[in-house]
Design brief:
The chain has about 425 residues and is α/β, with parallel strands linked by helices. Helix content is about 40%, strand content about 10%. The chain contains 16 helices and 13 strands. The C terminus is likely disordered.
Amino acid sequence: MDAGPWLAVPPRGYGGLETVVATLTTELRRRGHDVVLATVGDSEQDADGRVSAYPEGQFARLAAPYPEVVGTAHAHAQVVVEEIARHAAAGRPFDLVHTHLEVVGPAVLGALGDAAPPVLHTLHWDLHRNADFYAVFDGHGRVFFAGVSDSQIARGPARLRRQTLGSVPLSVPIPDGAPAAPEERTDSVLVLSRLCETKGIDVAVRACRAAGVPLVLAGPVGGQPDRAALEAALADPASPVRGYPDVRWFLEHVDPHLDGHAVRWIGSVAGSRKAELLRRSRAVLFPIRWEEPGGTAVCEALAAGTPVVAMARGCLPSLVQHEVTGFLAEDEAEFTAALGRLAELDPAACAAAARHRFSPGVMARGYERLYAELLTRTAGRARHAVADGAGPVPTARRELTERGPQRPLDGRESTR
């Protein structure tokens, strides 16, 4: 299971992809699979093995100019390749690799050809990003894709769609106990995301001010986890953070409205603090300006029994049941009006929907079906490799393939 080099698994605050990897890894191991995790050194996720290229997450570097960051993902991918080779040389090849590393993951693993195990690559982003790559990439029957929503895949290039095995909606751990009742909640609503233009943070500020609803902003700015870190970076003449587009946008469009009362920025949150924020907020807001592909934070909010107010873009209409678990808006005026209707929504209905649709078991079963389909589709190539003298097909892989795509895998199969 390749989480990439950007954030720890599980993340300490922001990190939708890493939250998914942590949830999926835990559930797959609970269901009897061996999972070796490729991540960063300070990850705390339990796994059956772990490899890393960096002692800590490299997320803060992501907003740097391309020449300064281009090698980061490749250095991580090199460690993944070395681990694949080490296991193969020891006679314990991986049954498959599940990579979440954008572009570099499928490109590097695809270049290995039959030297790599079958590869499934989960797409976590709007496919307009790096569209040129996905429009021409050919996995040669060895590398396949999974989406996080049907709407995401529908917007992808034709070649990518032909190599996609299906979509598996995201999941999050489901909290124990009943959600907080309305009288237990604060007056505030919450934004839990990166604070940037595509997330529509300025829309949230304007809507909340117009509706007279206090707003709490929880998330990083330009990779900086909180106000102290941002100010330290801005005070350093040599810091590249000063030129980050997200930072410049935040300072112009959001920072002037922060007053510590009506609009507050509390930085990145994690653990019990994040859980308490989600549980006690009146709603979580998603005023997005982009085609959201997966919506991890939406699932987290509903799992906590907290309604969602969102723009009806990307996957949001597939996650939020309008007027039951939240409100879907077509524009800023509708978004603002929805903030006056929060009392109409039942926290128990939100929690029940999340338990049914977004629990870890639901996601794990979805991926088990895709893993079986992957092994079925790549079995022919493995048999050709045997004929060419590349060695026998590992017993575990052969047994998994013979089970077929519709039956969950069990036993102690290994997955990266």
